[in-house]
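Hi all, long-time lurker, first post. I run a small reading group and we've been trying to get comfortable going from sequence to structure in the token notation. Rather than ask abstract questions, I figured I'd post a concrete chain and ask someone more experienced to write out its structure so we can walk through it together at our next meeting. Sequence below, copied exactly:
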Amino acid sequence: ILVGFGFKVSAVPFHFAAPDAYAGASSPVSAILATASKAMGMLGLIRLLVVIAIPENTDGSALWLVTLGVLSAITMTWGNLAALGTDNPKRMLAYSSVAHAGYMLAALTAIGAWKWGHVNAPSDLAGAILGAVLFHLVVLVAFKMGAFFVLAVLEMEGGASRLSNLAGLGKREPLLAAAMFIFMLSLAGVPPLAGFLSKFLVIAGIVKMAIGDLSATVAQGEIIGLMDLHWIWWFALLIFINSAISLFYYLRIGVVMFFEIPEKERQKPLPKAPFLRLVIWGCMVGTILFGIGGDALIRLCFNAIENLSL
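-- Answer (accepted) --
Happy to help. Here is the structure in token form:
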């Protein structure tokens, strides 16, 4: 069952079909694969692991915890490193989806450590981490779908299989290029966009879980060392490091759009595509608004998590 869900969420080593599927399908189809399909898979995995597979500390809990931790670390790192080496924007977004699956698996690892008694923390903290994961899933739909729909507009002109196809987009279509750049920055977790807020909530939740019993010590103003924390804090650090790595390929798209000269056959205005552009503008607005004023959506996600028996 774990292998099946691993394939669904593109966790390493079950991710190999995702890059080819994203690259081979049209961008609107790839958008659905990267958003709705992945979100449903992750929600199913959360339900399986948190409610069914790990309700209490059992003899096999250590194996589950190690498996989740290893999958998380490898998935986020491999996804970002693979994205650095591709020139295909859709493959790049596919590997980005792999990395984001790793971030969410890291959160599930922290919850697993709590469920199995390795960390002494209040149950509402575990709920907050799950709420952060759900919030990340929701906002990820906005900026990932928006990015694929920008590529869909480019495909109407002839293709979007190479980064060079985006060259000069900043001069040809300034608003479209700005929207694409906002989506890339949000995927990287740059403030004040929605991707930053969702990653921050996940990282903060993992760190608080790692502090555990030491929270009272911290509240008294005493200084604690990193070695005093539970080892799950390493996953917060891994998310931060991998987010920094991802900046290189996300910013690369911005450099191509705003500083490179387009091919001769790609210097005319892009097709109007009113429906695609409407979706793009909606995703861009959501990416910005949920970053600077996402309180209502966060509360909604946290309320939804309350129905789970943690």
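A couple of things your group might point at:
DSSP finds 13 helices and no strands in the chain.
Residues 129 and 205 are 5 Å apart (CA to CA).
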